[in-house]
Design a protein that fits this description.
By secondary structure, the chain is mainly α. 53% of the residues lie in helices and 4% in strands. It has 22 helices and five strands. Helix 7 runs antiparallel to helix 12, helix 17 packs across helix 19 and helix 18 packs across helix 19.
Amino acid sequence: MGRGHSEKFQKEQKVPKIGSSEVFVSKDHSRNGAKSEDLPRYDTKSKYDELIIDIETELSGINPIQLSKRCIYRVPTELRKLNEEAYTPRIVSIDPFHHGAKARLRSMEDLKRRYFKKFVQRSFVSLRKCIEFLMDNEGSAHEFYDEVIDMDSNTFVHMLLVDACFILELLLKSHCPHFRDNEDTYVMSTPWLRSDLKLDLILLENQIPLFVLEGLYNLAIATSSMQLESLQNLTLGFFKKHNQLDKRPNFESVKHFTNLILILHRPMSQRPVRRLDKFKHVYSVTELDEAGVKFQVSEKKCLLDVDFNKHVLEIPCFKLNDHTETLIRNLMALELCHYPSDSYIIDYITFMDYLINTPKDVDLLVQNGILENWLGDSKAAARLVNKLCVNITVDDNNFYFFDICDALNKYYEAPMHKRKAILRRDYFNTPWKTASTIAAFVLLVLTFIQTVCSIISINGNQTPT
């Protein structure tokens, strides 16, 4: 086939583009005198083209997620269904996840707007500068959330502005009593309201990025005639009960309030080296007690500073009250979503879950000052600790308490200690068994003495005179 014929063939076989309605007809047909209306028509627009165009349009609108910034999460469904109230704001919503969701939350919107107005008036910061800052950083704020926020730009920025200024005014009023008025006295002096408000501000689903608070507060400081505390001091003062170690973390690395509380609860020491073997279990408090382990409350403030030395297990005091479950669940949810291989609270609760199986385990820890049970019932305390670990995944190779659990297991499984445990479990685990065992032992001793005396008496009678 010659070159000229090849080029002619390629022109005749030109393939139409997807979505095009062009029809290409060979020039030979025209030479043969055929009319165009007599020629067969080929509909080159496939029935699939419309769907292809829709999918391509959809894909073009999907942007890559900035995983490095994402840190505000929806709590996984498997956790939320265990206790939905633990992850849901009680009185105030500070985020797009629960924005205007319930009537009980909307009742606080008036207070938020009044605090917003007072903050702007007090600092003399212009609304234009606040809005310019938020508009310029709106994209960065969106990247902090793990899902697309279904709000238009103005609504989202308005929400951030009101919520952030409300928090800043709340922090100022909490730190500076002379900023308060009659309305604030009610908020600050009502224990349940103040407590619930603080608890709402550390819920994982109720967060705004800390850089938003910092940016607006810096604008306020720049225009205020008063000498104001740093945002770090205000925040740490507000959450001081969570800062038992008196930490001063670098706020540039803090993402939001839940992240801050998690950092404050982490130990000062370095995490142990990752293990090749996996963590399996540890014996319960009752079992360890039967083997001779002594339980003692530690004077250390960090919950994770647990130590086992010379058969004494030292554990810092852990308080169980009505807010414990909410606090722990939200910290665990953040670790599960953001720090799956570097969890501390998850490891601590897992450790306590193994130690506590029954109300008797709770009673032993309460007697030794390790647990403060404000729930009023040992069964309720045991049930609370046990259900916290449901649907929680633990990194077995990076378990924080691996060495301590290994040492406790070895102590329990030592032959002498194990026999002691069996003896105490089978013969001394209740007052009745203890009394029966002692009575049987005394009876055995008396029987033995009687037998010896009888033998001596018989031998004495048989002695020749």
